[in-house]
Amino acid sequence: MSNDARRHGVPGWGIPRRRLLTGASTGFGAMALSALAARGDLGHASGDSAPKARVRSVIFCFMSGGVSAVDSFDPKPRLAIDHGKPMPVPVRPTMFNANGTIMASPWEFRRRGESGLPVSELFPHVADCADDLAVIRSMTSPANEHAQANYHLHSGFSLAGHPSAGAWMSYGLGSDCREMPGFVVLAGGGAPLGGVGVYGSGYLPATHQATLLDPAAAEPIANIRPREPLFSQEARMRVVARLDRRHLAIAGDDPRLEAAIRSYETAARMQAAVPGFVDLADETAATKALYGMDSPVRETVEYGRQCLLARRLVERGVRFIELTCLPRPADPGQIGNPWDQHGGLRAGHAEMARQVDQPIAGLIHDLKARGLFEETLVVWAGEFGRTPFAQGSDGRDHNPFGFSVWIAGGGVKGGSIYGATDDLGYHAVEHPVTVHHLWATVLHLLGVDHEKLTYRFGGRDFRLSDVHGRVIHDILA
Predict the structure, then answer these.
(1) 44 in a domain, yes or no?
(2) Listed residue (239, 188, 237) closest to 215, CA to CA
């Protein structure tokens, strides 16, 4: 209510929303709000202009550290022709400014699938899914440093304090899973540079921040296993629930208290659900092999476990799942940015591709076999790309001016390419794309009008797509 209403004593001022909804019209307002919240409809647009929901869940395969586009999904023959020559165009400042000459890709590209989509031999398994991928070759970022770029990719802003994409989708759509929150991070690889704030809820209610689950840990979530007999805990929880309701009735409309109560209630349900969820005993050996879990490479096995659990979370109705890359065995201290090869690009990128290639392809095949692909969106992206010229003799520095990401799943035009970089793979020159465009498109596929999913904070309405985003209709089926 406005300050004028408060000053002039407008009837009803000071009545908390919860008390008003439960007291007025015999409580029908509260019943309607509860139904909407349970269905997750609060973020949906309505009317003739509302986008039709194509998918209900998102799996975000975050390639932390920055994959080189010219070595993965954006072939540039000129790099081989001009290998060893100086760059013919001005070079923008890089992270370390130890810039060398043009460097050819160590990997060959082949046209794959019926679409003929070019994919590097770095990703032989994902290449088999070429007809399912919509590759955006003109992605850009304003940030050239990992932490800022990580925040920008996740939230649309380069500074901490804004909600992550997963938090926005949990806020707008809720979760179809009662036992799990709407936003889950499979955090076997640890947090990216910038810390766990990258997964935060910012100024949204705290209940929408990510729940971090480490599939390889003895206890995937701290204290997930009760420390007391089940009957004792159930009795205690009934008492706590009564006390919570009494305290909330006294405190009135307190979003922080409501969020805390909901978090505790979800946590109690998770104690029963999570141990069984991470137990893969009911998965066949063939399914595990599909995800690379029979590999002699530990990192492939663990990333495969994340991908398999992502499918299980989709089956349970979790809205947004993010996967994390594990550190390279050759550089175990490089937690948070394992794709970051300023030197040793051939060995480093090969190691990382070996970790994620088969598991991601297995995820796509498994989703399709189970009829889940058309209701799931897989997003593959790093925070920026890498330069077409060398850093030192065999590395590449950060390149935020033009790089590649891809999406696949329901409502996506598979086997397609959108945008382009110049003939060196340095700058986006055709249909430049921002992270605001990317998330606007994801929200559209979820049935949400990105311009209407807003939250007022600090005197303005914020949204994931900010004021710049637009839906990339050309990659939609």
Answers:
(1) no
(2) 188
Structural domain including 95 reads 50-475
pLDDT tens-digit profile of 182-210? 999 999 998 999 999 999 999 999 889 99
Q: How many domains does the chain have?
A: 1
CATH of the domain at 298: 3.40.720
| 25 in any annotated domain | no
- In the block, tokens 């070759």 appear at 137
pTM: 0.85
- Residues whose CB falls within 8 Å of the CB of residue 134, separated by 6 or more in sequence, listed in order: 406, 407, 408, 412, 413, 414, 415, 416, 417, 418, 475
The pLDDT-based confidence of 287 (bands split at 50, 70, 90) is: very high
Residue 425 lies in a domain: yes
Query: How far is it, in rounded angstroms, from Cα 432 to Cα 401?
Result: 9
The first and second tokens of residue 426, run together, are: 């340095």
386: nearest Cα among 144, 155, 48, 142: 144
pLDDT tens for each residue of 293-320:
999 999 999 999 999 999 999 999 999 9
Query: Mean pLDDT for the chain?
Result: 87
**Residue 313 CB partners (closer than 8 Å, separation 6+):** 57, 177, 180, 184, 277, 321
In a domain, 255, yes or no: yes
Q: Which long-range contacts (CB under 8 A, 24 or more apart) does 220-225 make?
A: 220/274, 220/278, 221/270, 221/274, 224/270, 224/271, 224/274, 224/275, 225/271, 225/275
Q: What is the pLDDT of residues 156-187, one digit of tens each?
A: 999 999 999 999 999 999 888 777 889 999 99
Q: What is the end-to-end Cα distance of the chain in Å, rounded?
A: 44
